[in-house]
Specification:
Shape: globular
Strand order of the largest sheet: 2-1-11-10-7-8
Helix content: 25-40%
Strand content: 15-25%
Distance between the termini: 56 Å
Largest sheet: 6 strands, antiparallel
Number of helices: 13
Structural class: alpha/beta
Number of strands: 20
Length: 445
């Protein structure tokens, strides 16, 4: 028998937006399917949306679009369809409705609407320089959200400028005259990271001889920049999530509650969506941080920015009077820059240091020592006292990864599967690494 009280809804058409059918529970939890035309749901493999749960019939129900909403029709299933506690045979429901098909919950979710953002007319944002469309589009987004309290997640390879953009966001925000506290989640000891964030009371743990304020307390009214958030230990992640949700925190070993009046900006070189899928990062924390997710492209994918970056770096170093010969510029434009903007700055500064003491006027001493062969008995490492341990390691990690993948693929003529077997690593991971470094490889093997 049909349910007459669930057949129609007044007001404007719910299909001003697209609808996505999302499985919210059961064995197929997380599966999604755009609702275009008709979608048949059931256990049989010939359904559009297959649910393997025992409480679902072979052909359980059918969903279709109408001008009034989503038409849901039971296909004579055993356990029926339940909406808001009532079993229905047929009805029209708006986006946002949750259906229970057997014991499996299905959501009729409005599809996210894409908002096209025109590239900014400005070729810089704070200290970040970018003439490419990709960077100017990022600048356009940041120009809008910098003036709000929105949480921002900056993703990108090492050296792409995440720290520079974080500081620029703070400078353009209403909190610009308040503290800007940085916590490097990858550099703080595992046992001290919670104290670094929230502080601790005297005697909270061995070595806590006095009370200490954490970043969230010191940045009151300002901004906390959580660098390398992907390195945050799993057992600390729920504590950070609770602070972001409640806007309150306690020091380690304390009972007093403090208000967390701060804006949070996070950055990571990891792909957090992939980390969530691998169980290495909490999904709820990821969504709480990624209110405004920004992915900064590597320098090799925005070569239009290399020339203006060179000019900016030379001007900042007081070397605008030095001439960059054509052959030197061509070598800079041709390099793949595994260390991104940071590596470019290092190369130019090295060239300046080599030329200025001699009174020269041309930057002809630009070299890429990491790409050169190492003399027998020599060392491939060239350390710089001005760089921190973390910066130095990141620089060589990226170069090692690129050179190893290139060597490995070369041994197998680009066959990713064969190369992955020899290296005893996951084929998809090797494919992603090759893609990241712009190396060619065949997926089949």
């Amino acid at each position: 028998m049909k349910s007459p009280d669930t057949r129609a809804f007044g007001g404007p058409s719910p299909f001003a937006v697209e609808v996505v059918v999302t499985v919210l529970s059961g064995a197929s939890k997380g599966a999604t399917l755009p609702l275009k035309g008709k979608v048949r749901v059931g256990k049989a493999p010939d359904n559009d949306l297959v649910l393997t749960d025992d409480t679902v019939s072979r052909h359980h129900c059918e969903l279709s679009r109408t001008v009034a909403g989503v038409l849901v029709r039971d296909l004579e299933s055993t356990n029926g369809i339940v909406v808001s506690g009532a079993r229905v045979q047929e009805g029209i429901f708006p986006p946002g409705t949750i259906l229970r098909v057997g014991e499996v919950e299905i959501g009729l979710r409005p599809a996210p609407q894409r908002m096209d953002v025109l590239p900014s007319e400005s070729q810089s944002f704070g200290g970040a320089i970018g003439h490419s469309v990709a960077m100017r589009t990022i600048f356009a987004i940041l120009e809008r959200i910098a003036k709000t309290d929105a949480t921002v997640l900056l993703e990108g390879e090492t050296g792409t400028g995440k720290d520079v953009l974080a500081r620029a966001i703070c400078k353009e925000s209403p909190r610009s005259n308040k503290p800007f506290m940085v916590v490097d989640c990858g550099a703080v000891s595992y046992s001290l990271i919670e104290s670094e964030l929230f502080g601790h009371e005297r005697g909270a743990f061995t070595g806590a001889v006095s009370a200490r304020q954490g970043a969230f307390e010191l940045a009151d009214g300002g901004t906390v920049f959580l660098d390398e958030i992907g390195e945050l230990p799993l057992d600390v992640q729920p504590k950070l999530l609770r602070v972001l949700e409640t806007r309150e925190f306690r020091r380690v070993g304390g009972n007093k509650t403090f208000a967390a009046d701060v804006r949070v900006i996070a950055a990571t070189k990891r792909n957090l969506e992939r980390e969530v899928a691998a169980g290495k990062f909490r999904e709820d924390l990821y969504f709480r941080l990624a209110v405004v997710p920004i992915t900064i492209p590597p320098l090799r994918l925005r070569r239009d920015d290399i020339t203006p970056l060179i000019s900016h770096i030379l001007n900042s170093a007081g070397a605008s009077d030095l001439v960059l010969p054509k052959e030197s510029l061509e070598s800079l434009l041709a390099h793949d820059w595994p260390g991104n903007v940071r590596e470019l700055r290092n190369v130019l500064e090295r060239a300046i240091y080599m030329v200025k003491p001699t009174g020269g006027t041309e930057l002809s001493a630009i070299t890429f020592p990491l790409s050169m062969s190492v003399p027998e008995g020599g060392s491939p490492f060239q350390f710089e006292p001005s760089k921190s341990y973390r910066e130095t390691r990141a620089k060589y990690d990226a170069d090692f990864e690129r050179r190893y993948v290139k060597w490995l693929l070369g041994r197998h003529h680009g066959n990713v599967s064969a190369a992955a077997r020899e290296a005893r690593m996951d084929r998809k991971h090797l494919h992603d690494m090759a893609k990241k470094h712009g190396l060619r490889g065949e997926s089949d093997g």
